[in-house]
Amino acid sequence: MADVDFCVVGAGFAGLTAALRLKQAGRSVVVLEARDRVGGRTFTELRADGTWIDRGGAWVGPGQDRIYALMAEFDVPSYKQYGRGESMMVIGGKQFRYTGTVPRTLNPFATVNLGTAMLELAQMCKTIPLEEPWNAKKADKWDTISVAQWLDHHVRSLAARDLLETAIGGTYTSDTSEVSLLFALHQMASGGGPQFVFGVEGGSQDSRIVGGMGAVYGPMAAEMGDALHLSAPVRRIEQGDDQVTVRCDDMTVTTRRVIVAVPIAIASQILYEPGLPVDRSLLHQRMPSGAVYKINIVYDEPFWRSDGLTGQSAAPGTPAPVTIDACTDAGTPGVLCVIVEGPTARDMCALDDETRRGLILAELANRFGPKAGSPIDFIEQNWTTERYSGGGMISHAPPGVLTEFGPALREPCGRIHWAGTESSAVMCGWVDGAVRSGERAAAEVMAAERVAVA
To answer: In this structure, what are the phi and psi dihedrals at residue 104, rounded to the nearest 5 degrees?
Structure first.
């Protein structure tokens, strides 16, 4: 039996940030993590050669002030995402090498249609109130349709449609027919608009952390000491009049308040007594995660750089829809990251390891040359089947959910408070959003206790 001021469920960036801020404020805290590691939907693997691989979230960008503040707190630097040279698009089996946003050799109608759609999305994003997207002027209209339906009416070019399907559907690791237009607009707006969401330089993939995300979450976890408990999935949370009892298989914690900082799709696996308010309970049922593989492929050197390529490519409908250079700040060995999301990722789950590897390497060899088919390592992370992640890197809202249940995202349920990147009004879906949510939840529980004492 442990008696503490606060208990935090989940040791991803949201939970670790909340716990760290509570401890720094002089409060006693226990952190319970179901996995045998910290980091949540980020996961840095340290290799025997001294290099590192980010198997989950990996990038930071301008405006993500809270993750940068944590990096400064623990003296962790960043470096720019490699972007010198040409990127590549593969449309209908034809390769286009280009610099800038889109290839000039893409047919003029596709280029104009793509640019017009991006501009319209950006304009709609400007009308979204970040704290309450369900109160946007056109919220009711935009929440009744999916992103796919909007694309049907606004993007007539097949090439432009394929690219936007890959970009938008990939962000939510789901088919665009499953995602509310209002939710997509809010998520984009929370980062400053579609150019930031899909961008590299100056966008959400602007920079990487030296040492990977683990260089930040590792020291955070160390700060918690023996207050952090791994392999401790929470089974039950019981609220009383003046305390909360949190039960694991081998441990029970009594606390004044609890912060649940796990993916929304996972929060429903906990039994709450008494039951949660109806809107929060239904929210858990209505915000699923998608499917995503993140595959880091290691080579002796980043050969694509000497070939004049950035390593960034988009090839809708292939076994390797998106690639990006994932080398460390040292530049060697070469690491090419393949991101497979949504329906394609689900299809990949049905294949055996050898078949899946063969398809991906064959696609890369066709795109980058024969060297791409002979890596020295092939590191898969199938987040789709991660028991305590629940699927993709962000839970998404299908049509109708935000306007009906959105206000329950951050609203405390008695002594239960909520954190997680999906609950952040700013940088929703990124590590920075997770950090912001943890800081908000920590401030929230301390304020609630001050009011209770007063």
So the answer is: -65, -25
- pLDDT of res. 55: 96
0.90 surpassed by pTM: yes
Report yes or no: 315 and 89 within 8 Å, Cβ to Cβ: yes
The span from the CA of 196 to the CA of 184, in Å, is 13
Residue type, 362: A
Under 8 Å between Cβ of 182 and 142? yes
**pLDDT tens figures, 353-386:** 999 999 999 999 999 999 999 999 999 999 999 8
What's the pLDDT tens digit per position in 210-250? 999 999 999 999 999 999 999 999 999 999 999 999 999 99
Return the number of other C-beta atoms located less than 10 Å from residue 201's C-beta. Answer: 12
Query: Is pLDDT of 52 > 70?
Result: yes
What residue type is 377 in one-letter code? D
Q: Which two tokens stand for residue 4?
A: 């503490």
CA distance 131 to 154: 27
User: What whole-number distance in Å separates Cα of residue 12 and Cα of residue 42?
Assistant: 7
Q: What angle do CA 106, 108, 109 make, to 5 degrees?
A: 110
Give the ranges where 134-193 is alpha helix by DSSP (H).
139-142, 147-154, 158-164, 170-171, 181-190
Q: Is 318 helix (H, G, I), strand (E, B) or coil?
A: coil
Peptide bond preceding 407 in cis form (omega within 30 of 0): no
| Token pair of 261 as six digits | 């900082």
Compute the distance between CA of residue 293 and CA of residue 347 in angstroms, rounded to an integer. Answer: 11
Exposed / middle / buried, residue 368 (Cβ in 10 Å: 0-12, 13-18, 19+): buried
What the block records as the tokens of 133 is 């997207």
Whether the CB-CB separation of 438 and 13 falls below 8 Å is answered with: yes
Q: Which residue has the higher pLDDT, 163 or 73?
A: 73
Structural contact between residues 117 and 154, judged by C-beta atoms closer than 8 angstroms: yes
Is the CB of residue 15 less than 8 Å from the CB of residue 228?
Answer: no
